[in-house]
Amino acid sequence: MEKKILAFGDSIMKGVVAEFNPSSNPAMKYGICPGNFADACSKLFSRKIFNFARFGSNIAAGKKYFDRNLDKICPGDYVVLEFGGNDSNMDWKAISENAFAEHLPQTTLRDFRRIYNSIIDEILERGGIPVLMSLPPVDAYKFFDFISIGNNVENLKAYLCGRVQYIADWHEKYNLEVFKIAADKRVHVIDITTAFLDHNNYTDYLCIDGMHPNEAGHQLIFGAVRDYCMAMGVC
Fold first, then answer.
1. pLDDT tens digits, 208-226
2. What distance in Å separates the CA atoms of residue 104 and residue 85, rounded to the nearest whole number?
3. Distance CA 118, CA 111 (A)
4. pLDDT digits 0-9 by tens, 158-167
5. For residue 186, is it left (φ>0), alpha (ψ between -120 and 50) or beta?
6. Domains of the chain with bracketed CATH
7. Which of 228, 231, 233, 222 is nearest to 42 (CA)?
């Protein structure tokens, strides 16, 4: 019986791209990239990838739909996980209203690690092969322009102590956590971060919101996944 590939994650795994049109409402439009990396991988493997990723999902939401589909995992199946981007995100509207109140990310690092570990454990218990994906870098300045729409820019800057780059630094903490989890659990991680950082102008591979890879970015991710699969003899 051919082994399955199941994928759980957020909008990046789903293949979502963002476009900005100031004449429309809302101005930011999201759609599925026709050349997204998951579809490209499906063609590479000549088999369907069961993609359960959802737009806006963090690890807690992902755990819920993972549990609903747990019975689909059979021994030897590959289960690809991609989480962290939404987990690291803040409630920028609340920050805009009061920069000096306490603000927590969608998921604290402690909870991120705890829930991620529990998902990996369940995959291993069913004989599946968990494969983690690292995160693409964000463009802090593009992202800041995005979250500034309709918000109090001065309060956002005050929260960041005037250092917009902190957005990317904070996001990177969650990316590093993915590598730490993979090392601790002794499972594989596909490094897509380097595929972006290999380019001095990696921001050209991100959408206008500074966080979603554009079509060219999806090609970078596909290349990283392809190289991993070839090295592991999966293709």
1. 999 999 999 999 999 999 9
2. 14
3. 11
4. 999 999 999 9
5. left
6. 5-232 (3.40.50.1110)
7. 222
